[in-house]
Structures are given as structure tokens and as C-alpha cells.
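[agent] plan:
  1. take the single chain provided in the ticket
  2. run structure prediction with default settings
  3. attach C-alpha cells to the ticket
  4. add a short note for the reviewer (M.T.)
[agent] executing step 1
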Amino acid sequence: MEKILDIISKKMEQAFQDAGYNAAYGRVTVSNRPDLCQYQCNGALSAAKVYKCAPIAIANAVAEKLQGEDFSMCKAVMPGFINLNLSDSFLRDYLEKMRTAPDFGVQKEGAGKMAIIDYGGANVAKPLHIGHLRPAIIGEALKRLHKFMGYNTIGDIHLGDWGLQMGLIIAELQVRQPDLCYFDPNYTGEYPEEAPFTLSDLEEIYPAASAKKDVDKEFADRAHIATYENQQGRRGYRAIWQHIMDISLPDLRRIYDKLDVHYEKWLGESDAHPYIPAMIEDLKAKGHAVMSEGALVFPVAEEGDKKEIPPCILIKSDGAAIYATTDLATLVQRMQDHHPDKMLYVTDKRQNLHFEQVFRAAKKGGIVKAETVLEHVGHGTMNGADGKPFKTRDGGVLRLEQLLNDMTNFVRSKVVENKIVAEDEVEATTAKIALAALKYGDLSNQPTKDYNFDLERFAAFEGNTGPYILYTIVRIKSILSRYGAWENLPICLPANPYAQELMLCITRLGPALESALRTSSPNLICAYIYELAGAVNKFYHETRILSEENKDLQKGYISLIGLAKRILEQCIDILGFSAPEKM
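[agent] step 2 finished; step 3 output follows
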């Protein structure tokens, strides 16, 4: 379905052409003075310089050609603006098309294309902490947005399961339990099905080993050797690795489920490992991979770089692969398995240089096609309400599950205190509101920006918050429920300025989603639904709906807020949360 701005711009371009001017000057924008008009065209100001004519004369000539039933106002004003208001009938007909069209008539620019969203990046054997919140919910929202916009999408968690943390755990386990069969190079039997450690053990073993490597060089060397030998397939170490995976993954899935974050692929760096040897040989054969100080590297610097771009290290001097190696091998795997048109990586923005190196190597080395879109969506950090890094009382990093519990407990206390729902509905309602507060509180910020986590502000039922959006949806649900069957009622002419404002806001759905997709910015969806919720509430407060005596007028009101509800519900689904029935 064509966007309103495109429809109006085409009419304006034709009017410029009919008046004897270049059609390119007919671009229309949303007015920056809504008190004066809904849309405007400033093309006459630019055309005046070319045609050596007063801009107001051009604007008058064009406005005269544009008069018609689609506009209630088409007026040239000094020094040469063309102000436009849509006619009520045009607005009604456009919304009726949105109401009846699949997905509100939003253009599916991703139709026939594949997008892989790499997000989450959890490390096995480590508990999820608050640093994992942003990539998980930003990535989930971007995946859902791409799917809504027509892409065939795959979300891949890309587990950290192949690096030094594995060698550290193996080395520390050998110190603690040296007699385990996994460490006997001559052992040929079957390894035990049950791991010699629990999840709680792992959560203690890894930090202890990580701290030890910083003060014990011999231990650090053994951990590096264990990492290399695990990557090379040492049988006992691979068995320990499998135990770690079997214990860690169910817990990761449990917490991501609580966040309503779901991955189509649970692949990790280990899955890319088999692709490394052939990839390295191919890069060598093409002359891209060269030796430098004992390491194999891929120089990716380009003439004209304004900053130094170091070579991309493929194989370290000790023979071990690193993150860049597995990231490139993952690209090989994805291109072979899925042939994606677009790949997004959602990680901390401090990894910008890493992805610049990897993306350049992938393009220069022919691992991906030149037209394949590779994008790093770098996000900022979440700080405490005081603006300082978020820490626990003892100075540690807060676990993600604890953050979820804190938000849930805070919301539950408000739900119970205000008697929002019946006792048997408290937990389900609390879960929805808490998730909305947490996700919207994060997603309403531009991804690249740092922000301060404020429990009370995020969970407030007023202001630019998730609960406010949910409250608006629940309010509409209540009205529709009291009215009765409403789904097939047609849109009517705007009966007052508040209805007109709401209708105009609804028409901006498509452009908002397209902008969010183009810039990988879910915050633009938040901004749109906050504006839409505001228009709904203003309309509600200024208009009699259920008490309206004119039944035809009432039907139009009901249809309008019903359409707004559906759009709000669709948008929060893209953002990754849903509304309860009551609040």
C-alpha cells in the first residue's frame, strides 16, 4: 500500500510539471508547523534560483494546479511555501484501506530476502548478567521487525563456547580433580554420562580460574594449551566441553524464555570450527593471508582510512584461532547454508573495530558477496539510576535473572497495592507489565546511547513507559468489550479535530517502521507508539464514545480506536512484549 507522502508527492510533482517546472521540486514533507498545516512543500524556494522567478509566484502557480478533492487546503504562503491539508474523505478512505489490508498495508521491502540477526552472544559456563540484556532485547526486536517487513529471518545466539574460558575451566578442573579420566591421554573407554560438576560449580570454577590466570603464568599457559588442544579435538577435553554445553544451555534457554527472547539457531563458535581450515587455505591461495610476527593475518587497511585499521588476525602465533577467525568461518557457514542478503550483529559498540576488520576481510576475501549487507548494531551500556556502572551491593556484576526478579517484584507490589486485577490474575498480569517496563525502558533509547536504569520511572503507568502503552491498549479493550462486535465496522469521516489527529497519526505507521528498519533503531517504533497512545488518550478524553447518541458516528469512533489498538498491539509484539486484559 502506497504511503501518503508518496501519494501526495506524486500529485505535487505533477503539479510542478503542469505549471512548467521540474517535477523534482515536488517533494512533500510532514509539516513542521502542524498548527498551520498537515504537510508542506518547499520546492518553490529551490526552483526560484533556477528559474529566476519569485518563489511565491512559483508556489501560487503550482498550488493552482493542485486544487482538487483530495485536499481541503492547498495554499501558497510567503516566501514560497505550499501548505497542504488532506480532505476528510481522502483521510477516511486511506484509513479504511489500512484497516482492511494485510498488516495495515505496510510495504514489505524485505519480501524474497533473507536476514540473519546475530544477537545475544552469551558465553557458556557463565551466568547471564545485565550486560546481556541490551543485545538480547534489541536483537529480538530487530529480528521481529525484519520478519514483519517481509524478510525470511533467522536469529542466531552465536554462543561463546570455543575460546579461552573453556581452557580455563579445563585447567582449573584438572587442578581440583586431577584423577578424572578426562585428563588421562591413554584412556580409551567411554566417558561418564554425568558431568563431574554442576552448574553452580561452573559458576564458581570459571571466575576462580579467570582470576588465577592473571597472577599465575604457568596456569595461564596451561589454560592456553588446553584451549588449543580442545579446538584440535583432544578426546577428553571435548568430553568436558560437551558436559559444559549440556549443563549450560538449558539454563540459558530458561532465562531467555523469561525475557521472551527466542532463537532459531543455537549455534556457537564451535560450529564454525570445521570451516576454518578450508577458509584459511582459500585466503592463503588468494594472497590475503600472510605471516606477521609468527601469526597468520589478513591486512584490511585501505587507502584513505582516517584511522589505523590493524590486520585481522586469523591464527595466533600459538596456533589457536580467535574470535575473528570463528566470525569469518561463521560467515562461510551462513553463506553456504542460507545465502543471506543481510546480516546484523548486535553487540557492545566497543566492538566496532573488530567488526570493521571482519567485514572488510569477508568482502575482500570473497567470503560474502559484494552486495551482501553486513552491519554492526553497536549498543551502549545500561547504568544505574545514578549514572554509574550497574553493580550489586558488594560491587559485583548484577545477574540478569536478578534484574528480572527485581522488576517483577516491584511491579507485583504495585499491582497488589492498587488492586488492579483479581488475586488469581496477579502473576500473569505482573509478568506482562514487568516485561513491558523492562523492554520499553531499554528500547525507547537509541541503541548506541548509554542510559540509566530507573526501576520506578520505567514501571510508571504515566509518561513515556511500557506500562503507559499497555494501559492505553487495555483502556481501548475495555471500551470495545462494552460496545460489542466491532471488527468489521468501517472507518468514518473525522468528526472532530481529535479524531483527525488520531487518524493522521495512524497513517504514519508505515514510515515509522521503515525508518526503524533502515536505521536499525527500535526506539523509533517506541517513539511512534508513544505518539499514537497520546493521540488515542486525547481523543478518548475529548470525545463521547460509548455515550454518543448518533449510532453511525459511534461506529466510526469504535472502528477508529479498534484500528489504533490493533496497530499498538502489532508494534509491541515487534518490540517483544504483549498487553494483559486488565490493568
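[agent] step 4 note for reviewer: The two ends are 35 Å apart (CA to CA).
[agent] ticket updated
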